[in-house]
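Structure (tokenized):
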């Protein structure tokens, strides 16, 4: 991202003649160690867990999510602006990934590839980076101090827009949350303090409330429970395309009525 710097420039360019500066955004990345199944030697080390929408994989283009609001990815950005102790939900999220909670795993990008063949996480940690877009090799970008210029393997999209193979540049890696494993006593106490640990009538801790069980536990009417169960099964991709399909159907129906109306006006009724 490019902002406006404070220094003056001998040549007037940019907004009010000020040179641009780099505005980086902090981002949290999650990394895990897998066991079980056909785990490769590389996956026995720290493997990054990609999200669907937020910046993570430096080779991945940002996705189109409007009008859907990806709440988890959105909250991850706010968590990066503070400390994990102010975001207990993040530890709960990571703890449920260790538990193998399927609805939580489904929030990640391509979860079936990361957790396939009975593989499971044994450790997880969070890292903090500073992210910025890379720049193509243009005269304007070369005048911006501190940017990463990429001009190799630049591809063309629809023959109009050049897209670099590496979309993001990140630096300044540091620890956000130290590694922990399943049933870590510190994490358990931390989550209990914020009432993020659920126990059944038998006293056994239930870390993963899945699917319709969540709706059953809410104080809802029968119609409200049916609506809750329906929203559990709706993918966010459907929510993205549904408004566009609705507008398209409205346009087509309106056009059909105009055609029928014009055809009706063209008919002449013969009077006896």
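Design, position by position:
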């Amino acid at each position: 991202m490019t902002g406006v710097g404070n220094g003056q420039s001998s040549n007037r360019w940019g907004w009010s003649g000020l040179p641009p500066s780099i505005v980086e955004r902090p981002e949290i990345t999650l990394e895990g160690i897998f066991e079980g199944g056909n785990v490769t030697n590389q996956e026995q080390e720290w493997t990054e867990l990609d999200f669907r929408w937020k910046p993570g994989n430096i080779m991945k283009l940002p996705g189109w999510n409007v009008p859907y609001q990806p709440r988890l990815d959105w909250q991850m950005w706010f968590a990066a602006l503070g400390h994990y102790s102010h975001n207990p939900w993040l530890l709960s999220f990571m703890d449920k990934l260790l538990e193998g909670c399927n609805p939580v795993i489904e929030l990640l990008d391509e979860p079936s590839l990361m957790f396939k063949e009975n593989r499971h996480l044994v450790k997880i940690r969070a890292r903090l980076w500073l992210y910025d877009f890379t720049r193509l090799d243009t005269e304007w970008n070369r005048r911006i101090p501190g940017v990463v210029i990429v001009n190799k393997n630049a591809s063309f999209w629809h023959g109009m827009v050049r897209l670099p193979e590496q979309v993001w540049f990140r630096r300044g890696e540091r620890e956000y949350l130290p590694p922990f494993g399943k049933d870590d006593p510190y994490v358990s106490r931390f989550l209990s303090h914020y009432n993020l640990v659920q126990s059944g009538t038998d006293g056994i801790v239930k870390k993963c409330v899945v699917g319709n069980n969540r709706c059953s536990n809410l104080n809802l009417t029968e119609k409200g429970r049916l609506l809750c169960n329906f929203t559990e099964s709706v993918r966010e991709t459907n929510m993205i395309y549904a408004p566009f399909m609705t507008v398209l159907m409205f346009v087509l129906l309106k056009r059909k009525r105009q055609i029928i109306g014009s055809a009706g006006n063209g008919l002449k009724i013969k009077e006896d």
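Reviewer-requested clarification: Strands lie at 2-4, 20-22, 25-35, 47-49, 120-133, 155-157, 161-163, 168-181, 198-199, 205-206. Residues 4-15 have pLDDT under 50 and may be disordered.
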